[in-house]
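Appendix C reproduces, verbatim, an entry submitted by the partner laboratory led by Prof. M.T., so that reviewers can inspect both the input and the predicted structure.
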Amino acid sequence: MKYEAEQINYSLLSPMMAATLSLMDGKLSFRHLSMVVQYTHNFETLKQAQEFVAQVIRSANQENDAVVQMTSQVKPFIQCLDPFEFVVPPPEESGQCRPVAPLTLNLMFSNDCQTSCGYCYAERRRVPPERHLSSMRWIEIFREAHALGIEQVSLSGGDPLFRNDALDLIADLIRLDMLFLLSTKCHVTREMADRLVEIGMARPINQYTREIQLSLDGPDPETADPMAGAPGFFERAMDSVRNLVGRGLNLRVKAVVTPFNAPRVYDFIRLMAVSGVEQVSVAAYSRTLYRHRDDMFLSEVERASIAQQCQKVQAEFPGLKLRLTGLASAAELQQQKVPALPEGEQPNLDPETRRSIKEEKWRVRTHCSGGRSSMTITPDGKVVLCDTIPQEGEFVVGDAGRDSLAEIWNSQELLDFAYPPRERFAGSACYDCPDLEGCQRKAGYCFRDSYFNYGSAFAPPPLCPAAADDGMRMD
């Protein structure tokens, strides 16, 4: 699994590849490692084993240097794996490609926030303080997760820092060497920044330093305050930036872009750069279930303008790490060479071509992690499979205030939501689909998009070729 600031990426390895990677302890030479692999994997010749080891290294290093040459300089930052940690009893035969425990958890300390952003994706379900999980239960959950081998969690909400004892809970995660991104719009005072340093937020774990992501959507109060729905937010956010940068914490500032603030993207990024921020994210607005307005979608002209603004500021600050989400860079737009269509007009494609394009998009769709590699724990302990869906009714698959993580993960209630039996799709195209089991066993489907578009989690999402239509515009 690879640590990313805004999302978790993981890959499923074959047992042979996983075993080979676990043998790379920084002590064996390439030849000696290949000799061990030849013996353990029953290769006929040493050359075959060497070719296999080289293939494993190339695969592991496709995006990042997961395998590196051991030196005294890099040794303090390298995590070596114990091969015996990978020796487990063979699981019972199952048709589901699913880990025996979650790879990650999404933890929601609070549904509340200091702001009221118009683009917020959170349900903001009101949970009375007396129904919140206790600090002790959260700490027990952290330890259960650690015992299950979970090394990375997500903190969402609401705002994680809205809870009074949030820094104490975060300190416990750090003591367990958990990796996480702390995303917030709360005012980070000098005292809070000092406390973050004190509890180890700036201390590297392996080769990673935990990241704090502060959300700010404009370069001045006239832009940022209305976006946040909170008068005075801009000044508080800039004070947070100064406090976090001044203490050397690993800070990223993120802006969500709508037509309202699109003309100010250059000014926003430039302000962050001159304020000492080294990482900036710019994300296009996408549809939310609870607060959506169509006039928040970006037009093609606005997207092109944003790309040009980003290109300009990147040229001025070449060392700035700028990430675009849901947006193309100026270079990518130029490579596409596709003329922008008038708003609302679709490309003139024949039905067969449209279907072919849709089938290909479905084939390479993003895997659903809900119930397959992760689950979400809400402030009062209700467990759902995604933090953007309702936290009640049929979407609740467990209770972390009552049951252990392992009990919830392996419960029939969770499995029936993540891998619904055919009967739950009665009345939809999925019910008669011959590939239903294969669909669920592999990538799954986005039940959030199904619910957004058709009011039911048990229907084909708009991306599926079997869906009745293309659904609502999502971004």
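The domain at 104-336+351-364 is CATH 3.20.20.70 (TIM Barrel). Additional entries are available on request from the coordinating office.
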